[in-house]
Design goal:
alpha/beta, Alkaline Phosphatase, subunit A, 2 domains, 9-stranded mixed sheet, 3-stranded antiparallel sheet, 27 helices, 16 strands
């Protein structure tokens, strides 16, 4: 054994060695800093966590071993051990020893990357239970191994992994900053939409992000300097390495998505507040748990016979046209981007009315709260609920437009088309957003007018204004063929986030709030005031029209609001909210108005899945069997979303709670079965139930 003094005497430092020493120093400091995680308080309640709890000191000891091994590897590379010096180990073990050291380095880097992501995004990291730290580190380690085996190089795989996790962490930070919902699997199906709207946001780097970038650069510099450790040199070995990567990836997928592994660790989803799941269980575990939930699980009671029984026994009501009601010449449905009434929050006050015109409409009108299933984004899901009558309760973490609309879809557009209307979709933005250019034809729309149809339109913060949008609607009504019946479905853009745009002057002041979100809140409220004024233009126009016109106006979701602002608006913190109060985040407004006599109602709560069927019930048009079923369901479950429902007692009830009656559970379970059947069975669906029957005996 060579003496330690001789080792240091023989070693000659060069500046090219600096990155590796920085790497090990940073790793040592970072892991020691996180030592407190293994001696601090734990909130583990599940059985697995209780089993691991006594092993906390051993986990920490393992980290120390990893640190020492990583440092040992740095020294070995500096001195050329064990390949260049015949010390310590016999020749046949030197390659194995090197592999072991690299294995330890990969594991240590995985621990580092896990904490890097949490460091950027998770203020609760110091309170995270040990079991979820271990789980997160394990997931990260497996992903690193997949990268390493895929490229057949430790250093290249590690560089890919470090960059991957850095980008992931930063992306999650900004996504959450812009919409108060963390990055989820469903977001990758709308990258095109995100790329278009991302230009409107402001990006500010935090010291945590800057630290993570510097750390990643140091690590990548080190691995680049090492020039790689190839696992295999021969072609056969390279093939085996890639095969191992694929097999490991499939095994990882199978365990996460085809078993109850995550649920078995105690991870549960707070669908109405995903960030909570990410903070308590870790970003990676939360991301994977929501990814698994993004595909609808088959209801336990589902079967083809069960669906057939539901259809046969459903309350059909008056399934034919109602002669006593008016058949409109035009039906115009407007889903207004981010339109909502923040006055529902008890502590929020503004210096002037935000939507005075909408509040004043009572003649030939119905309006009230609308329950939706999304918050701060994912507009397409509210759109899907409205057009189809299917709720997102079966798959709240899915964007159905991206996942399930692979063939012709029953919808309001198709129902009206079958009764002589020309269905036109109108959206003043890029047509590929939420896959609309593909989905709309499958929904039964004959025409889709997107951004190209709005050349020269007035812009507000870079988006086509509601006023220009509505002028396009009136133009379509003016220039239609004689006797033509028109159905227009319009998705606006004016009120899309971000709400921190310098070239927009706010006209609304928020009182008694001095937090960081003040300017954004005032800009949002001012935009809603502008939308209210534009709505007046639209209704004034059709009030003078000789054609009978029915207008349905509603918001898709509330805006992404800062947690500090929401604490102010509620007058209490989020952990103090009842479920009724939590559900306020999923409430917008709706208006149904006609330029002829219709029943009037104020303050009646609906949900997006009921709205189109309810709209048809106010006309002399025929509804589908499914639409009639929904109207029957509404009598028992007045309104619902992905997270709970409004009961006949006037209170919100969370799915799975003990306060739900057996009858309510049965109704909801039947509805789940119908949604699942409609989503997954394709050509096997009952066309006479979901559509207008083509043959009436």
């Amino acid at each position: 054994m060579i003496k330690l003094k001789r080792l240091f005497r023989d070693y000659k430092f060069t500046w090219k060695d600096l990155p590796k020493f920085i790497d090990w120093a940073v790793l040592l400091v970072f892991l020691l800093w996180n030592a407190g995680l293994f001696f601090g308080s734990s909130r583990v309640t599940d059985e697995w966590g209780k089993m691991i709890e006594p092993a906390r000191p051993f986990v920490f000891a393992g980290l120390i071993v990893c640190i020492f091994s990583a440092f040992l590897h740095g020294l070995s590379k500096a001195y050329g051990w064990p390949e260049k010096r015949k010390i310590w180990l016999p020749h046949r073990f030197r390659k194995l020893f090197t592999c072991f050291l690299w294995f330890i380095v990969i594991f240590g880097n995985a621990i580092l990357s896990f904490h890097e992501i949490e460091f950027i995004n998770n203020p609760w990291i110091l309170k995270m239970a040990d079991v979820y730290i271990v789980l997160g580190c394990g997931i990260t380690f497996i992903l690193y191994l997949i990268f390493v085996f895929l490229v057949n190089s430790v250093s290249v795989g590690m560089m890919i992994g470090n960059i991957f996790f850095l980008v992931w962490g930063i992306a999650d930070y900004f996504v959450y900053s812009f919409r108060t919902i963390p990055l989820q699997w469903i977001d990758f199906g709308s990258i095109g939409t995100a790329a278009h709207v991302a230009k409107g946001y402001k990006y500010t780097l935090t010291w945590q992000i800057v630290s993570a970038i510097v750390l990643t650069c140091c690590l990548c510099g080190f691995y680049l300097h090492e020039r790689g450790f190839r696992l295999f040199g021969k072609m056969r070995g390279k093939i085996l390495s890639r095969a191992a990567s694929v097999l490991l990836a499939f095994a990882f997928y199978g365990v996460i998505f085809k078993t109850d592994f995550l649920a078995g660790t105690g991870i549960w989803l707070r669908d109405w507040h995903p960030q909570y799941t990410y903070e308590v269980f870790g970003m990676e575990s939360g991301f994977l748990a929501f990814a698994k939930a993004s595909y609808p699980e088959q209801p336990k009671t589902y079967s083809a016979d069960k669906v057939e029984d539901i259809i046969e026994t459903s309350e059909e009501g008056e399934n034919g046209a109602q002669a006593s009601l008016t058949v409109p010449d035009n039906i115009i449905c407007i889903m207004n981007e981010s339109f909502s009434d923040l006055s529902i929050y008890p502590n929020l006050k503004t210096d002037k009315e935000v939507m005075p015109y909408l509040d004043s409409i009572t003649e030939n009108a119905q309006q009230g709260p609308l329950m939706v299933s999304v918050l701060g984004g994912t507009t397409a899901n509210t759109e899907y609920e409205f057009l189809t009558g299917n709720s997102m309760l079966l798959s709240p973490s899915t964007v159905v437009y991206n996942s399930f609309i692979k063939q012709d879809q029953f919808s309001l557009a198709r129902t009206l088309s079958d009764q002589g209307y020309t269905p036109v979709a109108l959206h003043p933005y890029y047509p590929n957003g939420w896959n609309r250019e593909i989905v709309y034809p499958r929904m039964g729309f004959d025409e889709f007018l997107s951004l190209d149809a709005f050349t020269g339109a007035e812009l507000v913060r870079g988006f086509v204004s509601d006023l220009s949008d509505y002028k396009k609607i009136t133009g379509l009504a003016e220039h239609k063929d004689a006797g033509e019946k028109l159905f227009i479905f319009n998705v606006t853009m004016q009120n899309h986030s971000d709400y921190d745009v310098d070239d927009f002057e706010s006209s609304i002041n928020v009182e008694d709030y001095q937090g960081d979100f003040l300017s954004e809140a005032e800009q949002y409220e001012s935009l809603i005031r502008l939308s209210d004024e534009s709505l007046k233009y639209l209704i004034d126009y059709f009030s003078k029209s000789s054609e009978k016109t029915l207008i349905c106006f509603f918001g898709d979701h509330q805006p992404a609001l800062d947690d500090d602002f929401m604490d102010y608006a509620y007058g209490k913190t989020s952990d103090q909210l009842s479920f009724d109060e939590q559900q306020l985040r999923y409430e917008t407004r709706y208006l149904i108005w006609a330029n002829y006599d219709i029943p009037e109602a104020q303050g009646q709560t609906l949900s997006a899945n009921y709205l189109s069927s309810y709209l048809l019930s106010l006309t002399g048009l025929e509804n589908t069997g499914y639409g009639q079923y929904l109207m029957g369901l509404r009598e028992k479950i007045p309104a619902l979303n992905a997270y709970g429902f409004l009961g006949t007692d006037g209170h919100q009830h969370e799915y799975g709670s003990d306060e739900i009656t057996d009858a309510e559970n049965d109704e909801i379970e039947d509805y789940r079965c119908l949604i699942y059947d409609e989503l997954t069975q394709g050509g096997k669906r009952d066309e006479n139930f979901y559509g207008i029957p083509t043959d009436t005996d």
